[in-house]
User: Fold this.
Amino acid sequence: MEDVKRPLLSRRLDGLGTTIFTEMSARALATGSVNLGQGFPDTDGPASVAQRAIDAISNGEGNQYPPLPGVPPLRHAITRHQERFYGLAHDPDTEVLVTAGATEAIAAAIFALVEPGDEVIALEPFYDSYAANIAMAGGTRVGLTLRPPAFRPDLEELKGKITARTRLLLINTPHNPTGMVLTRAETEAIARIAIEHDLLVITDEVYEHLVYDVPHIPMATIAGMRERTVTISSGGKTFGFTGWKVGWVTGTPELVAAVRTAKQFLTFVASGPLQFAIADALDLPDAYYDEFAADLKAKRDLLSAGLAEIGFDVYPCDGTYFVTTDITSLGERDGIDFCLSLPDRAGVVAIPSAVFYDDKEAGRTQVRFAFCKRPEVLENALTRLAVLKR
Ligand code: PMP
Ligand code: GLN
Assistant:
């Protein structure tokens, strides 16, 4: 008999490797580069929110296992937030679940809802954990490719991708990495398709407050969608505490119970004291949210203009922390090679968007830059990148 050694890593995880964010942040550290790769702000969120976390630890709030669905003040604050911004009412006991960041929420939702062999249609390029989680669930991912310059979804193409095996649509708006934000008309059209084909929708809305002069339209606000939508968000982006990993799910009691069933065997619970602080943060006045978005919009403009001046083709960005560029006009052909050499050539780290595509050709020349950094850091990166000028 042929001696075939069984590989150590299970086939479901084959090819997943190390995340691009881990790899590129390590490169940034090792080379002293300006890190415009991984999306995290270089200034922390509001001091009052940080103080609330310190107080919670001192007061013994959340130092022991919090309840599985999340601490009551946070669940209540999440329902107030959904009501205040979107007019969506939720029962904090049955329709809200606190998770270890949006990452766990996405994983738990996919594990709860996807059977082996089910097809999941996701906007491509997709955030890397989607592909991994669908693979872990034994599902098949089907990309609906967003194409430059506007990266708008082709809804006729979406209809054509639906088969008898399609179980759910995995939507992300505002969209990482492209910065595309679905319009109301697009959201309604996707909703009609979901309803017609009786599909579930998981919607990742972690950048819900990071929109620049366009509205964020939650899928669950569209008629007929609340019943079939798992909505996911997180305090990381909105409040500038990405390390805290406080995320949440809202939906019907049935959907939330399904996600909770998976979630209890992932982390069970996490971030006890930080949950109290994010509860306070959610109740910050509208001015906080407006100023945060205005600040990021100015940073988007600074980085986009500077990259264009150097010679990148810069695509429009209506939301998120990221701007996508094309490097062809710099005489470059491959974003992965470009990003691997960029720390040595220019002392800057960026993310090759190709890693978010199954169709690598579609994203070969796209490179993503994060602009959630102090203006002087963005200026420094631009000064360094000027060596690329032709
Ligand atoms: N979804 C998207 C689209 C993201 O960009 C990120 C991370 N930045 C996450 C989910 C993960 O969020 P969290 O850090 O709350 O786990
Ligand atoms: N979501 C962040 C990004 O897109 C990274 C989060 C992570 O490192 N997993 O850059």
Q: What stands out?
A: The chain has a mean pLDDT of 96. The chain has 14 helices and 13 strands. The chain has two domains: 11-45+287-388, 47-282. The longest helix spans residues 286-310.
